[in-house]
Amino acid sequence: MNAPSWTLNYLGLPFEECGRARDGLDCWGLVRLALVEVFKLEGLPDFAGQYSRSRDRTVPEIFAQELKRWRQVTEPTAGDIIVLRLSGRPWHVGLMVNRDVMLTIDRGTCSVLERVDSPRWHGRLDGYYRYER
Q1: 94: burial class by Cβ within 10 Å (0-12, 13-18, 19+)?
Q2: Domain count, the chain
């Protein structure tokens, strides 16, 4: 899979509910970490304490509020986020590393690179978003 070299620093990190550090991350924690470290985005909320687990029913509403600060795009580039539906609702985020591949993590896995058109994510795209500075 063709991906930029910076992604090597983010592969194999363990999943942890509401995790915000390299020793354990949820999907937003991973995306936020890479956006801050690689893309130098400041001011991103960590949502600490706003939900207790990644499948908490409040997560889609929390992200809906946050996405008001982002611009939806149709042609993603590295540093954009991808929002994916789970149970029919926008519930999962990944970080685009190029047009076709995202950095992602989910419960029971470590962080990986996945194609956005993989069978696992087929038909679940909610949108691509770019942070508005």
Answers
A1: buried
A2: 1
